[in-house]
Structures are given as structure tokens and as C-alpha cells.
Amino acid sequence: MKTTALAVALACAALFHAPVTTATPPKPALVAGFSAERLQRLDTAINDEIARQQLAGGVMVVLRDGKPVVFKAYGQQDIEGAKPMRTDTIFRIASMTKALTSVAAMMLYEEGRFLLKDPVAKYLPAFANLQVARPDGSTEKARRSLTIHDLLTHTAGMSYGPGPAKAAYDAAGMKDWYLVGHDETLAAWTDRMAALPLQSQPGEAFIYGYATDVLGRLVEVVSGQSLDQFIKTRITDPLRMPDTSFHLPPEKVGRLAHVYGLEGGQLKLMETSAKSDFVNGPRKLFSGGAGMVSTAGDYTRFLQMLLNKGELDGQRLLAPKTVELMTADHLADKARGDADGFGLGFWVNVKRGGFKELGSEGAFGWGSAYFPQYTVDPKERLVILLMTQLRPAGNSTLNLRVRNLTYQALIR
């Protein structure tokens, strides 16, 4: 992976929407503390997946100290149309939406609008008399109120269907994380969610699911704005993330990547941009848990803001103490994910061996059902992001291997 002055300049311009300037190139053998030779292993791994027809394409980003070490498109966004992947290709980001919704909630928290220990029912009264499903199919009353902290840490007892309340979830159509195509408002959906039994007592277990969608509705009620407008006016506009949204206007449809999946080891087209709900859907339910699209450049700006402890290019969204709280471990042995802890919206790596892979203490991140994955490492001043559209992903582990392939190239 050869780095030239022009390549670095173009990458910076695309990521941070700045004019292209020329500069003295870094020494070829060492780029921002990375071995250029070892970085070729990252290139090789991604290209190998494409060559073996296990991946259509993607965009890989590695930033250190806010500057791109890697910012590259691979393969195609539309194989049938022979349309190459571009660094400004738009991707469905599914659960990577959760980070934006969590930041939105914490911005309101900083304004003194609520406490994290506040009952959700204080703002969403439909959650006042919750029942909890038992293993035998019966229900019992919740032992304590459901709190906002429970929503942020996925200890709210809300799954994506599985659990002792599965029959009730199935009957209500709560079977999957995908809500974009629903012909109902977030308010109506949340009221239906509140009528279902929880899958566990509040605070007792990490259960990944609809909690962040409920959090998105709380943002609406507390702020007085729809979730899409709050995120646009308070997060994506200030951070200059123009291609991050809940739906796509006609002029951007051509940049939306197709979704491919692996079935029986073979790459198959699953969804075209023309048939996407992000283009032609009802545009009613703003899913704070899994409902947005973004680009590699946009999402990297958001992650860099978090790495900078709440600020980017003079725009401060959160205080450093708030980001510290969000990226601290809140769950200890209850945590589930790629690391040994969980904060307010992210997995958190508490100790060096917490990843059981390469990493640093204090790193945090998450991923997407469409296969993207991100890691933010404050200790190494590093952002790692792979954007792609692969669902189902079969046995592929590329989205996790790119993290190891990045760390193994970091030598200073």
C-alpha cells in the first residue's frame, strides 16, 4: 500500500471536506507510526476476499491523530452494473446508528433534561406498569422501574425477539431489528413495545435489542423534535456529515451500495438500491437502533469526534467527562460483545486481554448487521473502520480481522 502526498491529500479532503493541499509525503517505510510493508497485509486480506468472491467491495479507513493512514475503496458497490466502490459510497449502517442515538441522548442529559437513573416512564408513560416474562410462560411485575441507564446499556430486557416473551414478540411483529419498512411512527411503535413483557428484569442481564429504538423515542419527547431532525440539526450538520441520514434523496440513490450475502459460500445479490426502503419506504419510523445510512468519511468524522472527547473542528457536542462516562465499563461480568465491558452505547475493552485479540485498554466500538465494524482507540489515538454491505456474512471474519491487521502494522 504505497502512500503518496497526493493520496494523503485527497484522503484528508474527502474525510474532512477540506480543500486539497500538497505536502511533503511521509517516509514510505513509516506512515504515522505504521509499517507500510505490514499495512500491505490489510490490503491483501480485503483484496483476497473480493478475488474469492466472498465480498463485493468496501471502504477501509485507518486514522491516527486525525489523519488518514488508510482511506481506500475496494471492489464494487454494484457487481451486476460493474460499478466500482467509491470512498463516498453510501452504506446502510444498521446498529452503528445506535452510537448516534446514544450521543443524542447524552447531549440532552448534559442539558439537565434528565438523570440516567430516571424511570423511562417519567417521559414515556406507556412503560409505567411493566410485566416481565418468566421461563414458564407466565409473567410477573417488574421489581423496579426501567431506567434510561438500562436503555443505554441494553439491560432493559428488550431483545430482538428471542427470550421467554418470544410468543408475545412474534404476535406483535417484533421479530427482527429491521424497522425501516414499518408503516407507523416511532411513537406508535414504542407504545406497542411498551405493551409487551420484558425478557428479563430491568438491569439484570445484557440483552441486545430494541432498547436504543426506545431511547430514540425518548429523545423525541424530551427534545420536542423528531429523531431525524434532532440528529441532523444537533449532530450531522455541525459535524459536516452530509450523507448520514435516515432516508436518501433521489440524487444520492446512485451512491447507495447493493447488499450482497453469502449463501452456501456463494456471493449473492440480496438488495438493490432501487428496492431499498431507505429510498422507497414509508419514511415514518426513525429507527434509532438500526435505521441510518452513512459513508466512510462521514462516520469517521463522528468517531473522531468521540476520540477527541466530544469535539471536532471547533464543534463541541459533548464534554470530555461525558465521553469518559460513555466509554467506561458499566456492566462488568454482565457485558456481552467483542470485549470485556460495555459502556453507554459501545463495547469497551477494559483490560488488554479483554478483546482476546489485539487491542488496547480503553478502546471501544461496535458493528453492524451489514458487516461494517469500527474501533476507537484513545490510547493509540486511532480510528479503525470497515464499511461494506454483506448480509448474511456466512463464515467470514474479515470485519474482525481488519482490526488485528491494523494493529499488527502499528510499530511506533
Automatic annotation (TrEMBL):
Which residues belong to any copy of the Beta-lactamase-related domain?
43-393
Quick check: keyword Signal in the entry?
Answer: yes
Endpoints of the signal sequence: 1-23
Q: Does the keyword Metal-binding apply?
A: no
Recorded hits in Pfam families, A to Z, give: Beta-lactamase
Arranged from A to Z, the UniProt key words for this protein are: Signal
Q: What is this protein called?
A: CubicO group peptidase (Beta-lactamase class C family)
User: What organism, scientifically named, is this protein from?
Assistant: Roseateles asaccharophilus
Lineage of producing organism: Bacteria, Pseudomonadati, Pseudomonadota, Betaproteobacteria, Burkholderiales
